[in-house]
Specification:
The structure is a homodimer.
Chain A lengths: L6 E4 L13 E6 L4 H10 L4 E4 L3 H11 L2 E6 L2 E2 L14 H4 L3 E5 L3 H10 L5 E4 L4 H11 L2 E6 L8 H14 L8 H13 L3 H4 L4 H10 L2 H7 L8 E5 L2 E5 L1
Parallel strand pairs in A: 1-8, 2-7, 2-8, 3-6, 4-6
Antiparallel strand pairs in A: 4-5, 9-10
């Protein structure tokens, strides 16, 4: 038991500095919607995704690479970007063989924070690629940090629920002494049978649905294994692994 | 509805800067054990408590005031302090009419962080003084931040459960749009009937009980209204209000 790797859950980007990311698999989690969109784009044949931390950089890099400048700020399309952060936009007919240059309020920012903190093994996860994430974690046998993107450094429940879903599946393989992980798994187990119904309690649900009408996005982002690929970060790109 | 004051829950001192503390009641929560001990000391007749953020300052101020230099670092008595951070130490026969100068790893540090951030209305809360805290919050009709002390900036569940207990009692009086508050109340409602049993899941339980044997402390800290006073911060002192 004591020789098992550790698993921790970081509930906000503002807490990520509490965890050692060296020689650790960091799972960046932004369920609504960046990491769901990344899974959808790669599942539907995108060559790769370049996650960037600012709108100007997204525009600059898309111009240089011929990629699609996409993303959002505060939940809506940012000026200068041609596409948004909805997984529904990245159907195969549109995204196949293309490069997606993506910037978002929380998820892509957290990925860059993890890089700056020395992370050398980053994947992205959401319900659409839950099984691929879990299979990777159990195969690697390395320490794990489940890194929730939250909303502007605030805690959110949808990322926590996904962390809980991972923990429920992989916990026999890890040594877990972490109240965040316990709470995440607890919330997931209590509500796993109706995540769409439960999601109506969440602040981000209302931000997305009441303001922008993204009800299909919510349903997709909470559905397990509908875009079951493993996005692995390598030299500036998220590439579909395996 | 829209004219009600707001209520937010900050799950860690590392998140407190996300919240506006001006003209806001800040409830500092460190269930195991600082804010339980503060309630116990004031309930048992301490003149007041001086919360300080370092061991040398505790020693210096206790010398100057004739107070008792007390506290802990990493859960145990720190060198140079004469008493610890157990509510059991502060029975009436010992603490009545005395001044307690208290420094702790998380709770007193968070109180000083809130002060530095401009908080001008700070109280402390734990299960032993739950009703006094709730009565004060509903009477004040001001915005509220429930500030969990956590453990070295990490999330913990015992402080979260207390935040949930407060929310369960006062929520009709506040406008609450905050996933932290929703989760806190959810965890509390699910486990309110057996908090001592549930507490065995918590990392801090094992830190206190397995290492130091503080099982009586745990029971006291989770018992509602057994030291039901309101500690209000005023000019460097926590004073029993009303």
């Amino acid at each position: 038991m004591s020789h098992q790797p550790t698993l921790y859950t970081s509930l906000s980007p503002a807490l990520i500095q509490l965890y050692d990311l060296n020689n650790t698999v960091v799972v960046v989690i932004d369920v609504f919607r960046a990491t769901s969109t990344i899974a959808a784009a790669l599942y539907n044949g995108a060559r790769y995704v370049i996650p960037v931390d600012s709108v100007p950089k997204a525009i600059e890099i898309s111009a240089a690479t011929g990629g699609i400048a996409a993303g959002e700020r505060d939940g809506k399309l940012a000026e200068g970007l041609s596409h948004g952060n909805s997984p529904m936009e990245y159907k195969r007919a549109f995204i196949e063989d293309k490069v997606l240059v993506l910037t978002t309020t929380n998820g892509t920012r957290l990925l860059h924070m993890a890089l700056e903190q020395g992370a050398d093994n980053i994947i992205t996860g959401s319900f659409p690629n839950l099984s691929s994430v879990c299979n990777y974690l159990t195969a690697q046998q390395k320490n794990v940090v489940l890194a929730c993107a939250g909303w502007k450094d605030k805690f959110n429940l949808e990322d926590t629920l996904f962390a809980g879903a991972v923990i429920a599946r992989v916990k026999e393989h890890f040594s877990i002494h972490c109240d965040s992980s316990f709470m995440a798994e607890y919330m997931y187990r209590q509500n796993r049978n109706d995540l769409p119904g439960f999601s109506k309690n969440l602040t981000h649900y209302h931000r997305l649905v009441d303001r922008f009408g993204y009800i299909d996005d919510i349903a997709f982002c909470l559905q397990e294994d509908v875009a079951d690929v493993l996005p692995l970060y390598k030299e500036g790109r998220l590439i579909r692994q395996g």
